[in-house]
Structures are given as structure tokens and as C-alpha cells.
């Protein structure tokens, strides 16, 4: 029987010499069995506990029968336990073990200690451990050139941080998509044109860096994947993205979003739903104005430098208002205003999509396809503590869209605007 965990063998004689153990374990393989070639008798006297480490793959052996003074199993559910031996006077401290496997292993050790017939015990051959069995799992790999990129062997399954930059990758390697423990994936400075939806299967992924690639889009399927619950950092800067999908704002855990040096003509319509977002950078794009939902953000740092923002003019509205309102518009407004439940099981999918992007008037009523639209000036310090200057003139203001559900709402706004401007 074998168990992989971390082990520290502490001599109980050390305190008498004024010494202490290290206090931390080493990756090891524990085996319970009989030495090769030893006769198989009826008793358990030939059963040993062997501890193999990377430094000692041959292993140290400890007799088990009637040689165990005590088991310490208070924290066994956390994968921790200690086996105290009489001779030599050492404590074998186990940690970071699978709780279920640890319980089974300790049960077998206890039976061997009591002298149970070896035929009833799950014994293993006491042979030197393989290097892969005692080496600490590799959690980080950094590749910064094409020649170092592995072509013939798989990535270590235990990777949590993988960087593969400057490798001229045209697509994401399917082997990378099998690394279920990945928390940080850096594929910057490559030639990637499209993202596979299976990136969403990386359930632990917190950071995704795709800086300096050839991406033209970010799919809605990724936004609806498990990335909704895990992704906190996303760098899409220096690509060729013109717009982000409506579903993008489902990535509610985003804290840091970088969109610099793309071809964005608009930011996500419901960007205000990103209530965890604290750092937003969308410099050097093609943004003419900001979406109305931008007002809901609460940022620590904002950079919108180098966008061709239009000069706002509230006196020149874009009127899409239809009078009288259509029955569809009235029904849609009522659904949103009164928070009536809806879904694809009740309405056609295209109507559900329209309701998802309903606009909000200054009076907080909803409007869909019938509205009046204007742009007004907003000081970006209203949504961010630190603002990078919008232009070379030292400005921190940008145009933002406003919607009105009726002529009456627009007229009230216009009166206030004209009074405030004399």
C-alpha cells in the first residue's frame, strides 16, 4: 500500500540536544510492505513502513509490528496525521495527503502493528520510488521563445501558472486546455487569431493575458462559461477587436480589464454590471463616446487617453421616438419597469435579447427601440479615483450617452441644462 504526501521525520531526542526539527515536510512516497526476497510468513513481523523522498529514493525503513507508540489523527480530515514509533524514537509527521487515502493507509499500519496476518494486509513491494513519485509537482512554467516550447511532451498536469510568450503561436494549444489547475495563463506576444470556447473549461482560471495577438473578437460563449465565476484579470490590449459582445458583462468577477490599442468603437452596453471592476484601461481606441451604464462604475484607476471623443451637444438630439408607442414597445417597457419574469421558455429568443439591452431614461423608466438620445459631458472623476488625462490638453472629461423615454423627459432635462448654462 502506498501514499503520496509530505513527510517530516522528527527525532524525539533532538530537544534533549537543544535542537528542533525544520517544521515543514518534504514531498514523499510512503509504502507499507515487505522487503523484496523476504519470506512470506504468517506473522506481521516482516512488515515495514518505508519513506522515500527526492533526496533518498531508496528510502528509510521502519519496523511496524508492536513498534508504534501512538497515532495522532485529530486533523486527519485535513490530510494530516503523525505516527509515533518506539524504535527509533521518531515521529513520522504526514501532511497534504488525500484524507480518504490517509485514513486507509493508517488503518493498514494499525493492523500491521497489531500483528494481523500479512495475507490480509494490502502490502506493496518495498522498492525505490520513481523520480516522478517524490518530486514536488511543478506549478509554474515560463516559456519566452519558440525553441523552448515543448512539442513532443505534455505540460505538467499540476501547472497553475503558464506563460508562453514570443512563441509565434497561431492558436491555443489543446494541451494547455487540459490543465485544469491553471490559475494564470499568459499567451501574450503571439499570433493568436481566435479563442476556443473550451478556455471556459479552465475552472480555476483567474488571470488571462492575451496582450499583443491578432484577435478580432471575444466570443459570447466564453462570457457564459465558468469564467464568470473565476476570471479577475483580463488583458486584451494590442489586438484588433472592434466590439465586445453583450454577454461580456457576465464576467462579473473582473477586477482589472485592459483593452488598450484595439479598434473599439464602443464599450459594452451594460458595463455598469461589472461591479467588482477597479482598473479599466481602454486607451488609443476609436471610442466616440461612453455608454450610459458607464456612470455605475466605481474605479480606482481609469485610462481613456487617445480616443477620438466627439464634442457633446445636448441641443442636437438623435430622435428615435415613435408616437404613439407601438404595442411591442409598451409591453417591453412594462416588462422591464415592473420586473416581470421572462425567459426563452416564455418569449422568442430575439425578444429576450432586446429586453436584456433595454435603455434607461433619466426618469429611470425603460425604453427599447423608441427613445431620444443625446451625449453630455461627464467628468471621469465621478467614476474613478485616479484618471489618466483624456487628451494632451489636460482634460478629464468625456462624452456619455443619455436616453429619454419621452419628449416630456427630454424637455425637463433641456430646461435644467439651459438654466445651468445661463
UniProtKB/TrEMBL annotation:
Its main location: nucleus. Pfam families: LRR_1 (PF00560), LRR_8 (PF13855), PH_LRR1 (PF25344). Residues 1-123 form the PIF1/LRR1 pleckstrin homology domain. InterPro entries: Leu-rich_rpt, Leu-rich_rpt_typical-subtyp, LRR_dom_sf, LRR_domain-containing, PIF1/LRR1_PH. Pathway: Protein modification; protein ubiquitination. It is found in: Nucleus. Keywords: Leucine-rich repeat, Nucleus, Repeat, Ubl conjugation pathway. It comes from the Eukaryota. The keyword Mitochondrion does not apply. SUPFAM superfamilies: L domain-like. GO terms for cellular component: cytoplasm; nucleus. Transmembrane segments: none annotated. The keyword Nucleus applies. Substrate recognition subunit of an ECS (Elongin BC-CUL2/5-SOCS-box protein) E3 ubiquitin-protein ligase complex which mediates the ubiquitination and subsequent proteasomal degradation of target proteins. ECS(LRR1) ubiquitinates MCM7 and promotes CMG replisome disassembly by VCP and chromatin extraction during S-phase. May negatively regulate the 4-1BB-mediated signaling cascades which result in the activation of NK-kappaB and JNK1. PANTHER family: LEUCINE-RICH REPEAT PROTEIN 1 (PTHR48051:SF52), PTHR48051. Component of the probable ECS(LRR1) E3 ubiquitin-protein ligase complex which contains CUL2, RBX1, Elongin BC complex and LRR1. Interacts with CUL2, RBX1, ELOB and ELOC. This is Leucine-rich repeat protein 1. It comes from Eudyptes sclateri (Erect-crested penguin).
Amino acid at each position: 500500500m502506498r501514499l503520496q504526501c509530505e513527510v517530516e521525520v522528527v527525532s524525539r531526542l533532538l530537544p534533549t540536544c537543544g535542537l528542533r526539527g525544520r517544521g515543514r515536510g518534504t514531498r514523499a512516497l510512503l509504502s507499507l510492505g515487505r522487503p523484496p526476497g523476504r519470506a512470506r510468513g504468517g506473522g506481521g513481523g516482516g512488515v515495514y513502513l518505508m519513506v522515500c523522498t527526492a533526496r533518498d529514493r531508496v528510502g528509510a525503513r521502519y519496523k511496524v509490528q508492536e513498534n508504534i507508540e501512538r497515532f495522532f489523527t485529530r486533523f486527519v480530515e485535513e490530510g494530516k496525521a503523525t505516527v509515533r514509533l518506539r524504535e527509533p524514537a521518531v515521529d513520522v509527521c504526514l501532511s497534504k495527503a488525500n484524507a480518504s487515502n490517509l485514513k486507509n493507509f493508517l488503518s493498514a499500519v494499525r493492523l500491521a502493528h497489531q500483528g494481523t496476518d500479512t495475507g490480509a494486509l494490502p502490502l506493496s513491494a518495498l522498492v525505490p520510488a520513481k523520480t516522478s513519485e517524490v518530486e514536488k509537482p511543478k506549478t509554474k512554467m515560463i516559456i519566452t521563445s519558440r525553441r523552448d516550447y515543448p512539442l513532443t511532451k505534455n505540460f505538467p498536469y499540476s501547472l497553475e501558472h503558464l506563460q508562453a510568450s514570443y512563441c509565434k503561436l497561431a492558436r491555443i494549444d489543446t494541451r494547455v486546455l487540459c490543465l485544469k489547475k491553471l490559475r494564470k495563463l499568459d499567451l501574450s506576444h503571439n499570433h493568436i487569431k481566435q479563442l476556443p470556447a473550451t478556455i471556459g473549461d479552465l475552472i480555476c482560471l483567474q488571470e488571462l493575458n492575451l496582450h499583443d495577438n491578432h484577435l478580432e473578437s471575444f466570443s459570447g460563449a466564453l462570457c457564459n462559461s465558468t469564467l464568470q465565476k473565476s476570471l479577475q484579470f483580463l488583458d486584451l490590449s494590442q489586438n484588433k477587436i472592434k466590439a465586445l459582445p453583450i454577454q461580456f458583462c457576465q464576467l462579473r468577477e473582473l477586477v482589472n480589464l485592459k483593452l488598450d490599442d484595439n479598434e473599439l468603437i464602443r464599450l459594452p452596453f451594460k458595463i455598469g454590471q461589472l461591479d467588482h471592476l477597479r482598473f479599466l484601461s481602454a486607451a488609443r481606441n476609436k471610442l466616440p463616446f461612453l455608454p450610459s451604464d458607464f456612470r455605475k462604475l466605481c474605479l480606482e484607476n481609469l485610462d481613456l487617453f487617445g480616443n477620438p471623443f466627439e464634442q457633446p451637444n445636448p441641443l442636437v438630439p438623435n430622435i428615435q421616438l415613435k408616437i404613439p408607442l407601438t404595442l411591442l414597445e409598451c409591453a417591453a417597457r412594462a416588462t422591464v419597469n415592473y420586473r416581470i419574469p421572462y425567459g426563452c421558455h416564455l418569449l422568442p429568443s430575439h425578444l429576450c435579447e432586446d429586453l436584456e439591452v433595454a435603455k434607461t431614461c433619466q426618469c429611470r423608466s425603460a425604453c427599447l427601440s423608441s427613445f431620444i438620445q443625446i451625449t453630455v459631458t461627464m467628468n471621469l472623476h465621478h467614476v474613478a479615483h485616479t484618471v489618466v488625462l483624456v487628451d494632451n490638453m489636460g482634460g478629464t472629461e468625456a462624452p456619455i450617452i443619455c436616453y429619454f423615454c419621452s419628449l416630456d423627459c427630454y424637455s425637463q432635462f433641456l430646461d435644467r441644462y439651459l438654466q445651468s448654462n445661463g
